Amino acid sequence: MKGKAKVLAASLCFCLVAAACRAGPPADVGDALAGMTPRQLELVWADGLGWPAYLASLGEEAEVWRQAYEVVALGEDLESRAMVLAGMHRVLALVPAECVGCPGWLAPLAVLADTVPGVQLRLMGPERAGAVADLRPEAYPAAAGEAVPVLVVLDDGFRSLGWWSPGPEDRGLAPARAADRVLDRVVSLMERRPRD
Description:
- The protein has helices spanning 2-22, 26-34, 38-47, 51-58, 62-70, 76-83, 102-115, 175-190, and strands spanning 89-94, 119-124, 150-154, 160-164.
- By secondary structure, it is of the alpha+beta class.
- The protein has a single domain, classed as Glutaredoxin.
- Residues 5-24 and 129-143 have low confidence and may be disordered.
C-alpha cells in the first residue's frame, strides 16, 4: 500500500506543478510552486535530477552545459555568505524547453552546490514531470519571448524560502555578471527565515 500511496501523492504533486506551469509568466509559476506544502515540494524535489544526471539526460547538448560550468568562478563574498548558512538548502530549478540561456543561469548553481556543504541542486526539465512541458517561450509573455528557468529555494524541511527567475533586465548580461546575479539572488533567498 505504501507504493500506491507514493504514486498517488506524486501524481497529485505533478498535477499541481502542471497547473502552476500553465499559469503563465515565471511569477505565476514561482508563486504557485512557492505556495506548495513542504510534502508536495519534497515530492517534486525527489523527481528532479542532480547536475550530473541532468547533463546525462541532455545528450549532445550537455557539452554546452559543461562548458558553462567550467568558466564559473564563485566570488569570495558569495561563497562566504553561503558558507555561513546553517542547515540544508535546496535549489529546485524548473528548466523550460528551448531555454537557450539556461546553461549560463544554472551552471553557477551547480558550482555553488559542489563547493558549499549543505547546498543541493535539482533540475527538472519538461520531460521529467510530463505536463511541465508548458515551460516554453510562449508560456512566458513577461519574459519577452525568451524561456527562463524558475528557481525555488527550499530549507531543510522542504519549506519554500521564495523563488527567483531572470527578468528582462537580466538578459544580455555578460556571463560573469549573469553568474553573479543568479548566485546573489539565490543566496539572498537562502538567508531568509522560512515562512510559518
